[in-house]
Write a structure and sequence with these properties.
0% helix; 10 strands; mainly beta
């Protein structure tokens, strides 16, 4: 059974940092490009960052988070991370992890991030 469980979200003041984790099971994590996505209130879910199957080979960042967020993965632990620094109120959203491109049946509950001004 495929499972992706996001954690690490919370309430933080603008300028603060959070580190999100995505623990996975049930599929060949190390074989796939993975991504972090977010859905802000009233908006579509968009990709925030993505990382190729082999950590360090290539990564994608949305323009809005470049220079502030860092995606990484530990294939030995089937886990992916998102280090978020210098958070802004516009980063407020529910954050999800999935393969990239995403698989519809893989969406988890997400972890909420709220950034206060």
């Amino acid at each position: 059974q495929v499972q992706l469980v996001e954690s690490g979200g919370g309430l933080v003041q603008a300028g603060g940092s959070l580190r999100l984790s995505c623990a996975t099971a049930g599929f060949a994590f190390s074989s796939y490009t993975m991504g972090w996505f977010r859905r802000a209130p009233g908006k579509e879910r968009d990709v925030v960052a993505a990382i190729s199957w082999r950590s360090g080979v290539s990564a994608y960042y949305a323009d809005s988070v470049k220079g502030r967020f860092t995606i990484s993965r530990d294939n030995a632990k089937n886990t992916m991370y998102l280090q978020m620094n210098n958070l802004k109120p516009e980063d407020t959203a529910v954050y999800y992890c999935n393969r990239n491109p995403p698989v519809s049946s893989y969406w988890g509950q997400g972890t909420p991030v709220t950034v206060s001004s």
